[in-house]
Amino acid sequence: MSLVRAGTQGLIFDCDGTLVDSLPLYREGWLTALEDAIGQGVPPEWFHGHGGMSEHMVLDIVEQRLGRVVDRDGIISNARTSMLRKLHVLREITVVTDIARAYHGRLPMAVASNGSRQVVSACLSHLGLEKLFDVIITIDDVNHPKPAPDMFLLAARSLACAPATCLVFEDSREGMQAATRAGMAHVDVNTLQA
Q1: Which of 22, 58, 65, 71 lies deepest, with the highest CB count within 10 Å?
Q2: Tens of pLDDT along the chain (194 residues)?
Q3: Which residue, 177, 181, 133, 132, is CA-closest to 159?
Q4: Would residue 140 show up in a list of annotated catalytic residues for this protein?
């Protein structure tokens, strides 16, 4: 049975944890940046459950836990710099990238990610995936990140597809909520990787 049903006119893929196994890269970048900023160790398990969140959503949680304001711009800059230095460790999630390759040129396709354009573009480009997609939408393009539907609605508009005709591939709870709120069907890629 095909995941892409008849009548689907556009495919939208999340990046991190969906197309690209970048979560270890994000975890290491964030943990290093946070430790440098707050002056204390951060346990690696702290990052679990924060995948799929925007940088500012993660920092909201950090500030709440610490009970103080942190240097958001500094932490974000340091985390991104750390991630970009380690692109060589990136791997495709082939069960998903195979789908993107199979539909390249057959259906319009977009990436819609809560990541920054800087990091998302670097990850996709490093693995040669960027050329598969007609449009790349990131946190930099919308006012409200996932779980708001804004990113997916912008992707559908950019692909000239009605939201109800788009199929979203996602790994995070926030992303699946955003797809539902946008009126789009979605595939939980975690079920494909089992």
Answers
A1: 22
A2: 489 999 999 999 999 999 999 888 888 888 888 888 888 777 777 666 666 677 788 888 888 888 888 889 998 888 889 888 989 989 999 999 999 999 999 999 999 999 999 999 999 999 999 999 999 999 999 999 999 999 999 999 999 999 999 999 999 999 999 999 999 999 999 999 64
A3: 133
A4: no
**Looking at this protein, which amino acid is placed at residue 171?**
D
* Residue where a domain terminates, one of 88, 115, 135: 88
**C-alpha span between 7 and 153 (Å, rounded):** 18
**pTM, rounded to two decimals:** 0.85
Q: Report the number of distinct structural domains present in the chain.
A: 2
Per the CB < 8 A criterion, the answer to whether 155 and 12 are in contact is yes
Four-point Cα dihedral 97, 169, 46, 127, nearest 10: 20
Examine residue 76 and state whether it is found in any structural domain, yes or no: yes
Residue-wise burial string across 51-84, b where 16 or more C-beta atoms lie within 10 A, e elsewhere: bbbbbebbbeebeeeeeeeeebeebbebbbebbe
